[in-house]
Design a protein that fits this description.
By secondary structure, the protein is mainly α. The protein has one domain (18-223, 237-451): Growth Hormone, Chain: A (Up-down Bundle), CATH 1.20.1250. The protein has helices at 2-12, 18-45, 47-51, 57-88, 91-109, 123-151, 159-162, 164-167, 169-187, 190-197, 199-216, 223-230, 238-245, 247-256, 258-276, 281-290, 308-336, 338-354, 356-359, 364-382, 385-391, 398-414, 417-427, 433-451. α17 packs parallel to α20 (364-382). The radius of gyration is 22 Å and the shape is globular.
Length: 466
């Protein structure tokens, strides 16, 4: 009788439908990554000129990337903050809060006056830093919550497949943000784009935030979290419990994700800078004179000289492969296991890094091949992360553990990637071979972490409570 009662109780308990889980996890991360990429694109195309007008071209870019990196410092803070509430109060409310934080910060960036405005020469870059910090804070809590929303609601044997739902937000958000920038570039001249056009993606994101909030407010808590509450095993201080009992899993997750982060920011942010940089000193000198700046030939390093809009389309094409192979990775990681599958993909990233100079150097065609190969590998490595990282931790510290590992990796892998790559590009006087070696080293670190980690596919998930 008791088993029948329990069965009826389980059947009558509210549950998230497959469509609701897919849409809620996907739209949230799409919005988050749209906002994040809007800043990443603007940090290359707009912010160096608007917020650092008195710096040399290369120093302005480096300053802009430094602020870009502020978000990665904020992300571990966000993982601790949102992880705490996600493990103590539930996934739903925490996901709503992270989305609101990101949306408001992005909207306010769209309202910032440039540093050339009287009285804003210091305040404008300062506020940009603050708002960028808020973006990072929100993204630090968003990814883990979306990953848990998908995996904790997944049928048995489908966690890696369902885990690709939030991962698809990355390529979709990237495509939406960059297509919008390309369209603006197409219909606005340079002055219009710099005056107001760049603001449109930031301001428009508020509409998507409203849609995301509407969908997420309809969610119910996952069975895994409900069982944590029912068994009275809610961690008082999730962060302390995570590092006291699961610090090995945090270290493993951090380095498992490392190569993924380095790969992504090299193939997006760095290649955009490198690909659109003048190919010759003569072209660079003419551009500097047109902008009324002094050309420093000693600091000049050649790029590919591809038009901005053309290179953005090349990136968008590459990201289509990112999305396709993110979907492909789920069933493969389910069939062969997360660990085995990711070892082979990481070996592919290592080979890609070793041959980087063959693709990013010769010209436009080779660069397009490099982008397609890089983004294909990105989809294959990023897709299973929403399964393997949560599986490393028990349910009562799963939000905190997976979020901390994911975002500590962002500090080590993503934050310095563009900055280091530009420095290596400069040191090579335009040769990018050292950038590839940097990626290969990151792949070796990830490979070691995977070899030292046991397979997580068959671990108890729903009832795993420490």
């Amino acid at each position: 009788m008791s088993s029948i009662a329990e069965s009826k109780e389980s059947e009558s308990a509210p549950a998230n439908t497959r469509g609701r889980v897919i849409f809620s996890s996907l739209i949230g991360t799409t919005i988050e990554f749209f906002d994040f990429y809007a800043y990443a694109t603007a940090s290359v195309l707009v912010f160096p000129k608007l917020f650092f007008p008195n710096a040399t071209d290369i120093n302005a870019i480096l300053s802009s990337f430094a602020i870009f990196g502020v978000a990665f410092i904020a992300r571990p803070v966000g993982s601790i903050l949102f992880g705490h509430f996600g493990d103590r109060l539930g996934r739903k409310g925490t996901l709503v809060a992270s989305l609101l934080t990101m949306g408001l910060a992005t909207f306010l960036i769209g309202l910032l006056p440039p540093a050339t405005t009287e009285g804003w020469v210091v305040l404008a870059p300062l506020l940009l830093v603050v708002l960028r910090f808020c973006q990072g804070l929100a993204l630090g809590g968003e990814w883990s919550g979306a990953a848990l929303l998908a995996t904790e609601n997944a049928p048995k044997g489908k966690r890696a497949v369902w885990g690709t739902f939030p991962q698809l937000g990355a390529p979709i958000g990237f495509i939406l943000a960059n297509v919008l920038f390309v369209v603006l570039d197409l219909y606005l001249d340079d002055k219009q784009f710099m005056d107001f056009g760049w603001r449109i993606p930031f301001l428009a994101s508020i509409v998507m935030v409203a849609i995301g909030l509407y969908v997420r407010l309809k969610l119910v808590e996952s069975t895994s979290f409900q069982k944590v509450v029912e068994s009275e095993q809610v961690a008082k201080v999730p962060l302390a419990a995570t590092f006291k009992y699961h610090w090995r899993a945090v270290i493993a997750g951090t380095f498992i994700m490392l190569a993924t982060y380095v790969l992504f920011y090299l193939t997006t942010s760095f290649t955009l800078t490198y690909g659109t940089a003048p190919a010759s000193a003569e072209v660079a000198r003419a551009a500097a004179e047109k902008a009324g700046k002094t050309f420093n030939e000693a600091a000049f390093v050649p790029g590919l000289g591809i038009e901005r809009s053309e290179f953005l389309w090349m990136l968008i094409l590459g990201v289509v492969f990112f999305g396709i192979f993110t979907v492909v990775s789920g069933p493969l990681a389910e069939k062969y296991g997360r660990r085995k599958f990711l070892i082979w993909v990481t070996l592919g990233i290592l080979a890609f890094g070793a041959t980087w100079g063959l693709m990013f150097g010769p010209g436009k065609g080779a660069a397009l091949v490099g982008l397609i190969v890089g983004f294909t590998l990105m989809g294959l490595t990023f897709g299973p992360m929403a399964a393997i990282l949560p599986e490393l931790f028990p349910a009562n510290v799963r939000y905190t553990g997976s979020a901390v590992a994911y975002n500590l990796s962002s500090v080590l892998g993503a934050a310095p990637a563009s900055f280091v790559a530009i420095a290596l590009w400069q040191a090579g006087k335009g040769n990018t071979v050292w950038v590839g070696i940097y990626l290969a080293i990151a792949a070796v670190c990830t490979l070691v972490a995977l070899l030292m980690t046991k397979e997580t596919k068959d671990r108890e998930f729903e009832d795993n409570i420490a």
